Amino acid sequence: MKTAVWLYMFLFLAFFDLHAQYPVLTPFAISLGAAPAFIGWMMGIYALTHLPGNLLAGGLIDKHGSRRYIIFSLTAAGIILLMQAHVQMPWQLLILRSISGFVLAFLSPACLALLASLSKDPVTQGKYMSGHGVIHTLASVLSPAAGAFIVAKTGFSGTFQSLGWLLIFTGIMAFLTVPKPSAHSAKNPSSAAQGDTSGKLPFSLRLYLIPFAIACSQGILFFELPLRAGGQASIMSTGLLFSAVSLGALVTLSMLFLNRFAPGKRVAVAVLGLALCFYALAAAGSLPLVGVLFVLGLAKGLLFPALSSLFIELSGGGKLGRVFSYQSIAMSIGSFVGPIAAGQLRGSISPYFVAFVLLMIVLLLLPQRKAASPLELPAGVNP
């Protein structure tokens, strides 16, 4: 539990830092003279360069543990942000964002694998995943508005410098607090995977369509919100809208009793909720935007810990590095496709409607036999 507390503490700082950039990057790119299509590529390239990092992360985390990769990701990302403060041209921002995408690709699978290895009990693991989500969401509730406030006070350069030093400080904090692999490797089932050295997973890769669709729809949301009102919306109002999503997620993440329900059922309900919210964004312009985003956040808060618990359950506690790195790969591809599709299609069709269709397709695929049978009951439990 002590390890989890320390991990949550520096994760809060890291997530705060990263989410504070969301309402800032698009206006910053516009100030450099970037067109909307270029902004879509800028946001998408970050996710695309996640892929080689994710491919490397799975085996390396299973072999060496999470500690060194958490420290590397945080420190390197902080240095890149310090360099980003001095960008003068759009192509320079594109290059730095692509490098940042690679170095941060190790962070999420390393953190999730470390948290999951702290217990073998499915309910306890679910609580750890929910705790991870709560910390993530608490940071994201505060950080978009905070990022907008810092920009108003110090400008883009001062904001990136402040966030960069915060990430470097968090990397140092991780070096001092995260236990070395030797403290857990003997008990960590993901390190050896019970002697199985193959790269295969014990469940269908079809399930990774879920994180792909979620990330794609989320990328569309991150692209569209700053560009509402013809791109004339204020940074502060955009930050507050992102905070509304995070506040909704915090509500469901705080309901720890939800971990008692089968993760597959929670995933299905949450995906349906996300789809309906994107439909509302596309078709019901009269609905209050803040209210729709708050409900969307409720669905996200239900979804993410359920999805992590589902993958842990189906993997049997082994190969957690690979399990979560493949999840990150699926989300990276989705995050790459989402903003680019939004930038190319927004002139002819609402990107929100594209997200709705994609989520509904994934929802319709869930009842298939191979994907549905493990969704109902935890492993080892007979009906």
Label this structure with key terms.
mainly alpha; disordered C terminus; 16 helices; 383 residues
Compact description:
This protein is mainly alpha-helical and 383 residues long. The chain contains 16 helices and no strands.
Structure notes:
With 383 residues, the chain is mainly alpha-helical. 76% of the residues lie in helices and 0% in strands. The protein is built from 16 helices and no strands. Helix 5 (67-84) runs antiparallel to helix 7 (107-116) and helix 12 packs antiparallel against helix 13. The chain is globular, with a radius of gyration of 20 Å. The two termini are 32 Å apart. The model is unreliable at 183-197 and 367-383 (pLDDT under 50).
Largest sheet: none
SSE string, helices as H and strands as E: HHHHHHHHHHHHHHHH
* Helix count, DSSP H or I runs of 4 or more residues: 16
The helix/strand class is: mainly alpha
Total strands: 0
Shape: globular
* Estimated helix fraction: over 70%
Taking the alpha carbons of the first and last residues, their distance comes to 32 Å
Quote the average pLDDT. 77
Radius of gyration: 20 Å
Strand content: under 5%
Poorly predicted ranges: 183-197, 367-383
List the helices and strands and how they pair.
Elements: H1 2-19, H2 22-31, H3 36-48, H4 50-64, H5 67-84, H6 90-103, H7 107-116, H8 122-177, H9 189-192, H10 209-224, H11 235-253, H12 263-283, H13 289-315, H14 320-345, H15 351-365, H16 369-376
Helix pairs in contact: 1-8, 2-8, 2-11, 3-6, 3-14, 4-6, 4-14, 5-6, 5-7, 5-8, 7-14, 8-11, 8-13, 10-14, 10-15, 11-13, 12-13, 12-15
